[in-house]
Each structure stands twice: as structure tokens, then as C-alpha cells.
Amino acid sequence: MKMKTILPMIAVVVSALTDGFGQPVITKQPTNQTPYVGSTVTFSVIATGSPPPTYQWRFNGTALLDKTNSSFSLGNAQFTNAGPYSVVVSNDGGSVTSETAWLSVLPTNVVNLGDLELRFGVPTNLTALNTTADEQASSISTDGLTLFFDSNRPGGSGSYDIWTSTRSTASSPWGPPVNLGSPVNSASADGDPRISADGLSLYFDSARGGGVGGIDLWVVTRQQTTDPFEPPVSPGPPLNSVYHDYTPALSADSLTLVFASTRPGGSGGLGDLWISTRTNSAAPWEPPRNLGSPLNTANEEGIPVLSPDGLLLFFMSDRQNAGTYNVWVSQRATTTSPFGTPVRIRAVAEPTFRATPHALSADGTTLYYSSFARSGGQGGWDLWQINFTRLPFLSAAKGYPGHLYINLWGRPGATYEIQTTADLNTWTPWATIGLDPSDVWDQHPALLEDSYGAPPSRRFYRAVLK
Q1: What is the average pLDDT across 260-287?
Q2: SS3 assignment for the chain
């Protein structure tokens, strides 16, 4: 009888102990990271298990020394750190390996907007236009042959005046600047000129009398591009208010106006970005609305620039370093969609240097901006330009064991060549892919037979339009 009583008890105890062990379960996988070179990046995983699991992070299939917590940080990320990361989670019940998280380290001249990358070139100082005085806020005509800008150089009517320069071809040097004179310029500060796509309307801001508030938006018009501008007209309310309204940006179709204002209803700081629309070029402007977060912050935002297609918005903000303005860019999917999270353009200026955007060329490949006391300049604020290209976007995704699986977003109907490199200098063709012409924005998967342990020549990828 004692044996019959004891054996079931032993069996129950053993069963209870066995049920206490189990292979860990990962409830949150590590995610892909795309930092700039020199940045700090953190990988993390969340897992459950009893007893509590241990962790071993791996890079390219090899265990990383001392990386044995649920998360780890990699400081001063370099191109050589790019590649696949995973973590093995273990306890007495077994082990499980996480999904692969890919680290893609970007050079500082690339801006990643999610499904679009912008690659910037080398800044060029517009030496023919700059002086030891301040030159700022340029705007270029559609044909690229006339540039408007403001300056406080001698020979003007007030503290800041609007000047213009012309050239015979898009590759010719700029001619001597000419002051626009009266009635455009006044004894007050006149600046931030923005020429319409047809060249017949010039929007600007001014502190002159006859407006609604301190600084107001103004517009001058002309019948033909060879005619002088007529006297300035204030659009009045609702564009202008008793507060400061300044730095206008006009869309290519002249139906959208983005500007900065200190009026109530913003996010705080010294100024916010506001937007107004109209149904046609003769219709009145609708009441402006604040563009809100994530564009506006408690710091200052201003000097907006719309791309010709209306999908990119460049602007000035000191959100990263109060009092030091940098150039930021945001993207939206359609002209009626909200703008996404903005990204700072490092190729224009680092956080400790001041820079502000002004205009884009008609083809959307050249950004005109000003920078303060930058090496290679001639005065305080100088006019600069920088070229950039829009790149198709590659992202790593889960693939079959031993292979890399990528998604390519690109132009519908276009053909791209996938290339590889080890150092971002020498690129080698790898595969050619044609995108479906019927898709508005094609997400095309491409399976590259490249093992996780591939040599460095297979570490970086790009897509080049053929």
C-alpha cells in the first residue's frame, strides 16, 4: 500500500518539474537599423522563458564578444559594421535564434526618407554673387537664367534689398547683380523673394508700411518677363496677420503657398510653418492652417521650399541645436497627404553651422541655400548651391537561409542594375531588374544569392537606373 501511495506522488513531482522548462519565445524581434556613419545604433530583443533566458548576439554568423544582454549598442558605426545581426536566446529548455536585423550604414551625403533616398554632391559657393556683406534667400527662374536674392550690400534702398542676376545659359557664370529698385525695394527690409514658375509674380516679405502686421507677405506682378514689376500689393488677411508672416514658398502651379508665421495656433518658438491653397491663380487664398507635427516644433521653423512636384519640403529649423539653423527635408506621398518626419541634410551643414534653404531648380536636382561663415565663403551669409539625385530605395528583408532578400522601390517601368561594393567607391554589377510599368509605385522583390558569410565585396548594395 505504501508503494502505491508513493509512486503517484513521485510521478506528480517529476511531471511538475518537467513542465517548468520550455524553449524561450521571442516576443519582439530585433529591427533593421539605418544610421549615418559615426552614429550610435542599438539592437534589442524581447523574449520570455523560465528560467530567464541568456543572450548571445552574432554578426555575420559569428558570436560577438561580451554582447550577452537583451540589447547592445554599437558606437561610432562604420561601413565595416554593416551587415546581418541576430541573437541566440537560450535557457535550460532550449534555444531559439532571432530573425536577422540588417545594419545599413549611410554616408553623410545621403538622406534616407524611407522609400526614397537623396544623395547630395559637393556644395559650390556662388562666388560671382557673394560679397563681404550678407547674401541670402535666393529664388531661380524656371529656365535657370535669372536668380533673385536679398542682400544688405551697399547700393540698396534699405537694410536688405532684393537683387537679381542673369546668365546666358544654365552653364554660364552669373552676371553682375542689379538692385531691383523701386517700387519693389523700400527703405524697410525687403527679402525672401520667390518667383512664380511663369516668372510673372514675385512673392517676398517686407516690414514696410501699409501692411497688416510687423512683417507681411507681399507680391509684385508683371505682364511679361521682360517688363518691370508693378507696385507691390499686400495679399492682406487671411495670409497676413497682425503678427509676423514671412518667407513664402510658392508651388509650381501657384496654387499652394507655404510660409512662416508667429501667429497663434502654432507649436511655439519663434515661428511655425503654415500652408494656404487656392482653387486657381485668380482665386483668393484660403485661411492658412498650421502644418503641425512632425514639421513644427517648440523651436523655430521657417524658409520653406517646395519641390516642383510638391512632394518634398525643404525648410529651416533649429530643433537640433537651438539658435543654430539647419536645413531639413520632409516627404509626402501625394500633394494632399501630410508630410512625414523630416531629416536633416548633413551634406549642407553640421549641427553647429548655420544654413538655410531657399530654392530648387525646375528639374528638382539643385538646392540653393545660404550658409553662415562657411569655409570657402566670402562674408557672413553666402549663397551656395548643391546638386542631388533621387535614388531608388533598397531594404533588406527576411529571406531563405543563406540568402539575402531585398525589396526595391523605384520608378514604374524602369530598369535598375543592382550593384555591390565593399567601400562605397568601386561598384560591381550584380543583377538587373525591370519594374512593373502598371504599378504607381512598385515594390519589387529581388532575391540575391548572397550568403550571410559572403566576402566584403557583397556587403553593400545600390540600385542604379539603366
Answers
A1: 92
A2: CHHHHHHHHHHHHHHHHHHCCCCCEEEECCCCECCECCCCEEEECEEECCCCCEEEEEECCEECCCCCCCEEEECCCCHHHCEEEEEEEEECCEEEECCCEEECCECCCEEECCCCEEEECCCEECCCCCCCCCEEEEEECCCCCEEEEEECCCCCCCCCEEEEEECCCCCCCCCCCEECCCCCCCCCCEEEEEECCCCCEEEEEECCCCCCCCCEEEEEECCCCCCCCCCCECCCCCCCCCCCEEEEEECCCCCEEEEEECCCCCCCCCCEEEEEECCCCCCCCCCCEECCCCCCCCCCEEEEEECCCCCEEEEEECCCCCCCCEEEEEECCCCCCCCCCCEECCCCCCCCCCEEEEEECCCCCEEEEEEECCCCCCCCEEEEEEEEEEECEEEEECCCCCCEEEEEEECCCCEEEEEEECCCCCCEEEEEEECCCCCCCEEEEEEECCCCCCCHHHCEEEEEEC
Q: Calculate mean pLDDT across residues 36-52.
A: 93
Q: How far apart are CA 267 and CA 130, in angstroms?
A: 35
* Three cell numbers, residue 368: 540653393
How are beta strands 381-391 and 117-120 bridged, if at all? Answer: antiparallel
How far does CA 150 lie from the centroid of its chain? 26
Angle at 432 between CA 430 and CA 438, to 5 degrees: 150
Task: Name the burial class of residue 427, with classes exposed (0-12), middle (13-18) and buried (19+) by CB atoms within 10 angstroms of its CB.
Answer: middle
- As a whole number, mean pLDDT of residues 222-226 equals 95
Measuring CA to CA, which residue among 193, 174, 120, 86 is closest to residue 386?
120
> Starting at the edge strand that comes first in sequence, how are the strands of the sheet with 415-421 ordered?
428-434, 415-421, 460-465
| Amino acid at residue number 298 | A
Cα separation of 238 and 288, whole Å? 7
Cα gap 4→170, rounded to integer Å: 100
Residue 387, burial from CB neighbour count under 10 angstroms (0-12, 13-18, 19+): middle
Please check whether residue 204 is in contact with residue 359, taking contact to mean a CB–CB distance below 8 angstroms.
no
Distance separating alpha carbons of residues 432 and 231, to the nearest angstrom: 57
Q: What whole-number distance in Å separates Cα of residue 414 and Cα of residue 412?
A: 6
Q: Which residues lie below 8 Å from residue 161, measured CB to CB, with a gap of 6+?
A: 150, 151, 152, 179, 180, 185, 190, 191
225 Rama sector, left if φ>0, alpha if ψ -120 to 50, beta otherwise:
alpha
* Span 307-335, average pLDDT: 91
Q: pLDDT of 7-22, one tens digit each?
A: 333 233 333 333 446 7
